[in-house]
Amino acid sequence: MLDVTTHKTGEAMVVSIKGDVDLYSSPQLRKTVIALTGKKTPAILINLSDVGYMDSSGVATLVEGLQQAGKYKGKFKLFGLTSTVKEVFELSRLDKVFDIYSDEAAAMASVA
Amino acid sequence: MKPKTKQQIPPQRAVDADTVELRLPADPKLLKIVRAAVASFCEIIGFAAEESNSAMLAVDEACSNIIKHAYGGASRAPIIITLRRIDRGLEVVLRDYGTKADPKRIKPRPLDEIRPGGLGVHLIRSVMNEVSFDATIKDGNQLTLVKYLREA
């Protein structure tokens, strides 16, 4: 099962995910993301440093989050992608669509 | 004590040494098992970590499609996955007994459309060398994926 936790840093909400994101676990991630965009959270930063695997359902969940945040001009950014996850984004050509940062500090600096 | 002799297996019961067959219900929570099996098999046949991850992604996406589209969600209906070592690579055959896929509808979508969903087929085609549906199958679907070892 996926471990999804959130913590607030300034105006930003950091969502940390631990585990594999697949067809079974992505609904759990979606619930958190949709709750945050539903509350019009100004900045959502997704920490993927503990995600060893992500399939297209996980990618689709993040695309949905990006689009929902875009509707209220919120920021939705990713950081800490492992090489396997990075490859899925590159194959999907979504690495240019998302703002991707190496770590939390860099992602935070981008929304400050 | 008599020395142990190698057990004689009748030919009809012998299993191909280069083939592993997995039979499991179409349940998303079991995809983890599929990924682990594909990764281990790829390691045994000499795939590099990157190639192994790609094959794992393709098989996982294919199983997800079977669960979502052929069976319409989690079910006890079977997915049979055959992993086979072939000359210079891996062949994976995925068999289901669900709704027949319409080949016209399983084309990858254009990537410039930024929207959730529809990426699975694109990912499978991106990472595998060959992807083919067996149109002669009467009940359900049979998808064959092939990935070749990268030349050293």
Number of helices of chain A: 4
Number of separate structural domains of chain A = 1
Q: Characterize the overall form of chain B.
A: globular
* CATH superfamily grouping of chain B: Histidine kinase-like ATPase, C-terminal domain
Q: What is the CA-atom radius of gyration of chain A, in angstroms?
A: 12 Å
Helix proportion of chain B = 25-40%
Q: At CATH's second level, what is the architecture of chain B?
A: 2-Layer Sandwich
The total beta strand count of chain A reads 5
**In which order are the strands of the major sheet of chain B placed?**
1-2-3-5-4
- How far from one another are the termini of chain B? 49 Å
Describe this structure in words.
The complex is a heterodimer of chains A (112) and B (152). Chain A has four helices and five strands, in the order ββαβαβαβα. Chain A has helices spanning 26-38, 56-71, 83-91, 104-111, and strands at residues 3-9, 12-21, 43-54, 75-79, 99-101. Chain A is an alpha/beta fold. Chain A has a single domain (3-111), classed as Transcription Regulator spoIIAA (2-Layer Sandwich), CATH 3.30.750. Chain B has one domain: 2-Layer Sandwich (Heat Shock Protein 90), CATH 3.30.565.10. Helices cover 29% and strands 24% of the residues of chain B. Chain B has three helices and five strands. A five-stranded antiparallel sheet of chain B has the order 1-2-3-5-4, covered by helices on one side. In chain B, a hairpin with a 2-residue loop joins β2 (78-86) and β3 (89-96). In chain B, α2 packs antiparallel against α3. The radius of gyration of chain B is 17 Å and the shape is globular. The model of chain B has no long low-confidence stretch (mean pLDDT 90). Chain A binds chain B through residues 20, 22-24, 53, 55-57, 59-61, 63-64, 67, 84, 87-88, 91-94, 97, and chain B through 28-29, 31-32, 35, 50, 53-54, 56-57, 60-61, 64, 67-68, 111, 114-117, 119-120, 122-123, 126-127.
